[in-house]
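cache lookup: miss for this entity combination. No prior model stored, computing from scratch. Input as submitted by user K.M.:
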Amino acid sequence: MTIQLAVDIVIFSLLDTSLRVLLIKRGIPPFKGRMAIPGGFVHHNESLERAALRELKEETGVHDVFLEQLYSFGEPRRDPRGRVVSVAYYALIPGDRKLKAGSDAAVAGWFPVNKLPPLAFDHRRIVAYARERLRNKLEYTSVGFQLLPRKFSLPELQAVYETILDKDLDKRNFRKKMDLLGILKPLNEWRSTGRKPARLYTFVGKGFEQFKDKGILFPF
Amino acid sequence: MTIQLAVDIVIFSLLDTSLRVLLIKRGIPPFKGRMAIPGGFVHHNESLERAALRELKEETGVHDVFLEQLYSFGEPRRDPRGRVVSVAYYALIPGDRKLKAGSDAAVAGWFPVNKLPPLAFDHRRIVAYARERLRNKLEYTSVGFQLLPRKFSLPELQAVYETILDKDLDKRNFRKKMDLLGILKPLNEWRSTGRKPARLYTFVGKGFEQFKDKGILFPF
DNA sequence: ACAAAAGTGTTCGATATACACCCATGT
DNA sequence: ACATGGGTGTATATCGAACACTTTTGT
């Protein structure tokens, strides 16, 4: 008869230049056998963010990644078990991070966000909301760098933007913009994966908030 | 021992060209006698938004105003009574709306957001968060119009922007921008409050979402 | 007549956009 | 040698920022 509180996490990563979401397969009713985003109930002495971090770690083994509260979903009938309000978070994991394999037996894998299977509860809506937030934030913050390893090439960075914004960007304009922003430090390292080696950079923005003032960062 | 779920609402209005927040005086512990933003527990069969609307109506008598979910605050010790997670909303009320007087005995009044008294719980933080969100949204959405009556003059509209952004704007650039956006319909009415009468306009934007695509709307 | 607020255009600088060729490497 | 993807500059259009005077009304 009481309201229960859960957290659910949309975990994004970039694999094979496609934006993906980590899904698990539910082993118990309701929606047994359906795919779902990871989540669970909030413990009594745990903040919402800690609960989200706990779930994130349980499913992926990582703990030091971008995590942000998304929205709280509280329609009375969203969970057939009873009244469950879910505080949704989303996380960004660099594509090169090796996750602990089978960290949780329930992990089903990484699904392209454009081709999701049927999901349990209102999880489709939650993922859609997260995707929208990610797209928006990409344009005026530095979230894009959260999906890349510490060292990355400009073509890789551009691919992140193109994938999330779902449109092609002009190479020269992209580089000019990055140059103008002054948030990339060129390294004396080159990645020779493919043909001509690409120079590597690191992100040197001093954080997130700094960018807000500047207005839109990436209005391609 | 269970987690309780509440909604709290930051209700903004614009009075005497100052941005204000509706506060109530708490009649019972904890924080008895302290000021607080309106709020209350979510009923069992009520969505989060409905709970917020209910609180809004109880305190102000209005129900047809802008209301948006803000963030969920869930630190374990934010409420001394026990574990209470609060889903915060914010609402915008046109400055000319007459609220039902003494609608709730607890209503204390409209306080300038820059000069708030000590608040109960973590309400100061919630208000700060709402203020920040309002400032940001003002720049790329049409929230500004939610604080004005249906008919308004351009100087009034500009005052909304100046108040919330807390900086002076150039009259000519402001009008040029509004003109360019094409979201104002001039009326054949003038408001003669003061010296030279000001022409009245209405907002004719077809909604909110429409603007997102256009990117930033008001980067003064 | 004077004070107060409404209304009106132009110039300049910054930034977004469009666009094509050469270079370094692996095969 | 050639195919593949990395790397580079310029010209134009759009938009934001700065800036001063005239008009209308109430007193």
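stored under new cache key. Chain B has five helices and ten strands.
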